[in-house]
Amino acid sequence: MDGLTGEGVGTDPDQERQYCELCGEMENLMKCGRCRSSFYCSKDHQKQDWKKHKQVCKQAENNPLLPHTHTHTHTHTHAPSGQPNCRDNVKNEPKPLQEQQKSTTPSCTASEKSKLHVGTTQPSPSIKPVCGAEPEHTGDDISNGQTMSPHQKLATEYIGPCMNKHGICVVNNFLGEELGLGVLEEVCALYTSGEFTDGQLVSQRSDSIKDIRGDKITWIEGKEPGCEKIAVLMSRMDDIVRHCNGKLGNYRINGRTKAMVACYPGKGTGYVRHVDNPNGDGRCVTCIYYLNKDWNAKEHGGILRIFPDGKTQFADIEPLFDRLLFFWSDRRNPHEVQPAYATRYAITVWYFDADERARAKEKYLTGAVEKGGKVELNRSAEPSLMKKS
Description:
GO terms for molecular function: ferrous iron binding; hypoxia-inducible factor-proline dioxygenase activity; L-ascorbic acid binding; zinc ion binding. It is built from nine helices and 19 strands. The chain is an alpha+beta fold. The chain starts with 12 loop residues before the first helix and ends in a 5-residue tail after the last strand.
């Protein structure tokens, strides 16, 4: 991706891959004693991820020169409901974890204040979605004598200004019906194959997780078999952000996480109010793509409610099929997923600001040496780099 893989991008891929394979935590990591190339924050998470990791682990052990990969083969056998990550009858247990020096984590930084334009003087506590553009996918536009692609026009004339004004931006009909259905089909196949695990929290007791978040998740790099349409979605997200880069506040975006594919399996599951990046870990923009056909919020619930700038007003975003949502990831946008009573799918990618990401790494490493302390993340995110689209 032009302009996003240059200065400021980490040059050591092994360092960028130091995160827990299950929850994405980036601190207090230990290395797998068998393959010596995968990391976990605890023995419990290593065991939970063993079903997915064992083949890669064995390959790496048999061939020490083989580069570590996060690509797993997806099988389409139905997993027991509610237990997609169980390790039934696993004969080969993972080798013990080995202590590993930590590489990244955040520290508190002051965020630039940004207010959401309410657009009404009525005393209603609810705000309609602030934006809702529908991109045109055909034809080019001419600006200053240069041809603009549809994505460039959407990014520069709509998404950039909307984000800078409101901190939230909604784009409807982003991929189109055919491609959107293709992404949905791949996500459903992933879910039924047992690739999803319970959403994790950093530094939280396991018995409290379901009270805070009820989603099941998996992380996708885009190279996995059966994820070709998801890779196209990620590429188009990157294309939009590339055209916005330099126009989103003062951010200089140079990377992103993998895609977190999430499923709320109905039954009133949701996610309590939280902030994606409360402590300056580098994530500046949250980008969510929704996959829910014929969604009726009154019947199915599952609304993403954003409380911009800590005000009493809020913005309700319905998780409608082929809808793309952007918002600032920091404390300007606390948000919650209200209880969902039907299966609710979404794909989330977080984009990194180069300077904040570098400061987070430096401050964590300095603090770890001086204090031996632990800096906590509110929500995990696996690091990755944006590719040229």
